[in-house]
């Protein structure tokens, strides 16, 4: 049995997946704690696998990005000027992962004492190959800020230093929020997994250090849920939520992925599903006979706002307490037409011949959207909570950044230095190197409780190696490998 939970903008959905699927939808007013409490009435969460998807910490920060002041500490070493990215500090790890210049502890203490901040981002240029300097600065910074408010760049991975700095700043801004959310979930569920924006799941410990992995997780969840429920491999998922409508393409059974998302005008290392959104959903307000991109609580669900949901009830549908909706009068046909026209034109601009409708208003709007866009449509069973189903049926996915250096006799995995898996000065071939890195990523997954059957396919995303030659003699091999356990869906 697996429990999948997706926290959306208006509602939180839960799916209990075993031999059959049971779903639950609860207003966000009760909070995720309320959802977990409801689910715990049916199953013992601490003895079942729990996976949680939520984009709201990132969405909250993006809307208030400049309000959370981040002290960005940058340790670039010699070369380019990175002063636009933060305060430059002494210290240097070179491209081989050697600590060439130590940090200046007095300098760091002075910077921390002289600056006001809400959180701290620490970024060293080659920390993916050796995170020692960042760890040293962390120990000093912990005297001035809780560890929940300090982010280190080597957890973000990736060699693009400007993008890694930007990602670390994002992580610093949301890290405390994600820590607090994690503590709440663990109080109900114990150890659990988070669902990432690329459609895979990871142990919560990994997200605590790199919380930007949660970006766009809700669109990824609904895409995989639609895939699981319909078995369609190529389609456009149209998810009608409370605050917005998301459009996600399925290509060969998986959502389309985009690399290097911009957040607040800053390019990051974030990898997630490629989605398009329109700012209208079931809770979008109707004013002066038009939909506006603000939301409230529908009359149909005990609120005091006239929304798209209420307009659908006035048009003859029976959603929630539909009689309450019909107490007001307006030109509901034009309101519904405004939404359908916008959604249909978005479908046409993306292309394709099939749409899968999800979200609680799918049966009321998807048929007309499909008719306008001249495409085939499917509304699957459990359409209203397809997002939570997608969370529950997804596989574990990890990414490992590895540097193997047999000349120096060391290896670095996501910035953590270990003994080399090969003898010093040996010359392993490419297949041997890839085999060792694959063994390492499986070891990490198993450490967090993953079983082999839960893992997706394991593939190298990047590989480069060369032989070190000195004095005309071969001294060793240096290899850089990015290995990934790919996201996927469980059908067992």
Could you tell me the strand content as a percent range? Answer: 25-35%
The multimeric state of the shown protein is single chain
- Reading side by side through the largest sheet, how are the strands ordered? 3-2-1-4-11-12
The CATH C-level class name of the largest domain: Alpha Beta
Structural class: alpha/beta
* Main sheet makeup: 6 strands, mixed
Task: Work out the radius of gyration.
Answer: 25 Å
- CATH architecture type of the largest domain: 2-Layer Sandwich
What do we call the CATH topology of the largest domain? Nucleotidyltransferase, domain 5
How far apart lie the N and C ends? 11 Å
Individual helix count = 13
Fraction in helix: 25-40%
Shape: globular
> Average pLDDT across residues?
92
Total count of domains: 3
Tell how many strands the DSSP assignment holds: 29
Which spans have pLDDT < 50 for at least 5 consecutive residues?
none
Walkthrough of the structure:
By secondary structure, the chain is α/β, with parallel strands linked by helices. It has three domains: 115 residues; 144 residues, Nucleotidyltransferase, domain 5; 87 residues, no CATH class. It is 31% helix and 29% strand. The protein has 13 helices and 29 strands. The strands form eight sheets. Strands 3-2-1-4-11-12 form a six-stranded mixed beta sheet, with helices on both faces. Strands 13, 14, 15, 20, 23 and 24 form a six-stranded mixed beta sheet that branches. The longest helix is centred in the middle third of the chain and has 29 residues. The termini are close together. The model has no long low-confidence stretch (mean pLDDT 92).
């Amino acid at each position: 049995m697996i429990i999948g939970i997706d926290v959306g903008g208006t509602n939180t959905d839960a799916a209990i997946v075993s031999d059959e699927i049971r779903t639950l939808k609860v207003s966000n007013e009760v909070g995720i704690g309320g959802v977990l409490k409801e689910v715990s009435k049916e199953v013992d969460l601490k003895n079942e696998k729990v996976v949680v998807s939520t984009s709201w910490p990132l969405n909250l920060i993006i809307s208030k990005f400049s309000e959370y002041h981040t002290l960005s500490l940058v340790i670039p070493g010699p070369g380019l000027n990175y002063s636009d990215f933060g305060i430059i500090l002494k210290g240097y790890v070179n491209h081989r992962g050697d600590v060439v210049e130590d940090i200046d502890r007095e300098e760091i203490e002075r910077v921390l004492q002289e600056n006001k901040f809400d959180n701290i981002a620490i970024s060293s240029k080659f920390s993916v190959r050796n995170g020692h300097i960042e760890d040293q600065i962390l120990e000093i910074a912990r005297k001035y800020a809780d560890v929940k408010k300090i982010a280190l760049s080597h957890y973000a991975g990736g060699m693009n230093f400007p993008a890694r700095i930007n990602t670390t700043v994002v992580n610093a801004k949301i890290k405390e929020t994600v820590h607090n959310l994690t503590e709440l979930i663990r109080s109900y569920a114990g150890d659990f997994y988070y669902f990432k924006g690329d459609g895979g799941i990871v142990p919560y410990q990994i997200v605590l250090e790199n919380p930007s992995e949660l970006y766009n997780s809700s669109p990824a969840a609904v895409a995989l849920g639609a895939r699981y429920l319909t078995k369609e491999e190529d389609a456009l998922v149209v998810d009608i939520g409370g605050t917005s409508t998301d459009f996600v393409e399925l290509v060969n059974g998986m959502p389309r992925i985009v690399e290097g998302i911009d957040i607040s005008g800053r390019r990051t290392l974030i990898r997630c599903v490629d989605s398009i959104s329109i700012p209208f959903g079931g809770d979008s307000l109707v004013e002066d006979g038009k939909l506006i991109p603000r939301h409230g609580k529908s009359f149909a669900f005990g609120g005091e706002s006239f929304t798209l949901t209420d307009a659908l009830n006035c048009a003859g549908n029976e959603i929630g307490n539909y009689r309450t909706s019909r107490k007001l009068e307006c030109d509901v046909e034009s309101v519904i037409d405004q939404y359908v026209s916008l959604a249909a034109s978005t479908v046409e601009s993306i292309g394709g011949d099939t749409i899968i409708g999800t979200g609680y208003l799918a049966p009321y709007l998807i048929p007309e959207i499909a008719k306008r866009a001249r495409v085939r449509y499917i509304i699957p069973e459990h359409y209203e909570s397809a997002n939570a189903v997608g969370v529950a049926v997804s596989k574990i996915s990890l990414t490992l950044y590895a540097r193997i250096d047999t000349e120096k006799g060391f290896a670095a995995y996501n910035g953590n230095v270990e003994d080399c898996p090969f003898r010093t000065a040996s010359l392993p071939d490419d297949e041997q190197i890839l085999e060792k890195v694959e063994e390492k990523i499986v070891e990490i997954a198993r450490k967090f409780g993953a079983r082999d059957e839960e893992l997706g396919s394991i593939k190298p995303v990047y590989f480069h190696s060369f032989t070190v030659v000195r004095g005309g003699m071969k001294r060793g091999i240096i290899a850089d490998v990015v290995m990934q356990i790919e996201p996927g869906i469980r059908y067992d």
